[in-house]
Q: What sequence folds into this?
């Protein structure tokens, strides 16, 4: 087996291995590009292909992100062709990435949840081989999370009445426009720093896939969609400042985004990595679709 750096010439091969291996997920070439080359932390030394003779048989992508607690490494994607499993291919790919992480001074490694650009918020335990693999590599389970699904067909997500009441109370609700960008990013940095990447990404869509609520011109809440895993119908993130909570603003913004997604032709919306499940169930009737286990390894 030989290991090579992933590049444009192996894009198709890596995509095919991932698509074949991660069969519980929707994956298309646009999303695969977004996950790989379009990640601002894309690291060639940690993005590797494995070949058996000239057959592409495995792919791994690791990224390093600067977090408040220090440098965190993420195994962002890992897949071995089903016909080449249990031959130590993932082990070799992982060992290369882990030693790069070590060299870079990474203190903690996590699996898949590489926000703001991530494919899954953890490991789906139905990929049981992956659970076995990471536990064998001394990763410990640190929690779990879930994705919700909201089916959009033949449903009404209108907010007219609620918006009238909000306006009467001095709350302006509208889609963000280009000139809101600076104020939005300043507000996000102050209130929900972790979501800056996704908010920024929503401003690149046409139309901008983010709605805001304001009082006297000051942002108090936002809600976005198609900000990560674009084309797959992912909602989020969303947030309301503490002082403005409990007034129904989040519900209006959520439903505005979901209504947009319905108009775009999605038949379902994924609400990933939640969050207050009762809030989403109340406003859009969404239910748990998948569960993810979160894993971590501390570097010695
Ligand atoms: C997880 C995956 C990458 C492992 O690839 P692999 O090349 O078969 O892994 P390795 O041969 O290096 O396995 C190393 C160890 O992991 C564990 N392991 C891997 N697959 C296992 C299985 N099917 N059953 C039990 N243990 C397993 C074992 O401890 C194994 O060591 P051993 O063979 O000496 O017992 C592969 O199964 C895969 O592509 N799965 C689908 C994609 C996926 O789930 N990715 C993560 C998505 S969340």
A:
């Amino acid at each position: 087996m030989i290991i090579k750096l992933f590049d444009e010439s192996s894009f198709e091969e890596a995509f095919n291995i991932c698509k074949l291996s991660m069969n519980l997920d929707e994956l298309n070439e646009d999303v695969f590009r977004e996950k790989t080359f379009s990640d601002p932390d894309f690291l060639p030394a940690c993005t590797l292909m494995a070949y058996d003779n000239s057959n592409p048989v495995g792919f791994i992508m690791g990224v390093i992100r600067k977090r408040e607690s220090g440098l965190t490494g993420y195994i962002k994607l890992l897949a071995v062709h089903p016909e080449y499993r249990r031959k130590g291919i993932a082990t070799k790919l992982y060992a290369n990435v882990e030693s790069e992480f070590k060299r870079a001074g990474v203190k903690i490694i996590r699996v898949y949840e590489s926000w703001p650009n991530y494919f899954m918020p953890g490991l789906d335990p139905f990929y049981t081989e992956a659970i076995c693999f990471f536990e064998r590599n001394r990763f410990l389970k640190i929690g779990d999370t879930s994705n919700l699904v909201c089916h959009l067909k033949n449903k009404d997500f209108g907010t007219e009445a609620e918006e009238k009441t909000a306006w009467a109370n001095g709350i302006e609700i509208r889609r963000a426009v280009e000139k809101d960008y600076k104020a939005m990013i300043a507000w996000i940095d102050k209130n929900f720093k972790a979501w800056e990447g996704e908010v920024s990404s929503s401003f690149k869509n046409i139309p901008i896939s983010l709605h805001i609520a304001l009082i006297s011109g000051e942002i108090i809440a936002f809600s976005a969609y198609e900000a990560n895993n674009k084309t797959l119908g992912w909602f989020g993130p969303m947030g309301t400042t503490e002082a403005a909570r409990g007034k129904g603003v989040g519900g209006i913004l959520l439903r505005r985004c979901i209504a947009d997604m319905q108009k775009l032709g999605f038949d379902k919306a994924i609400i990933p990595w939640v969050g207050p499940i009762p809030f989403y169930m109340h406003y859009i009737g969404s239910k748990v679709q998948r569960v993810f286990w979160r894993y971590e390894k501390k570097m010695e």
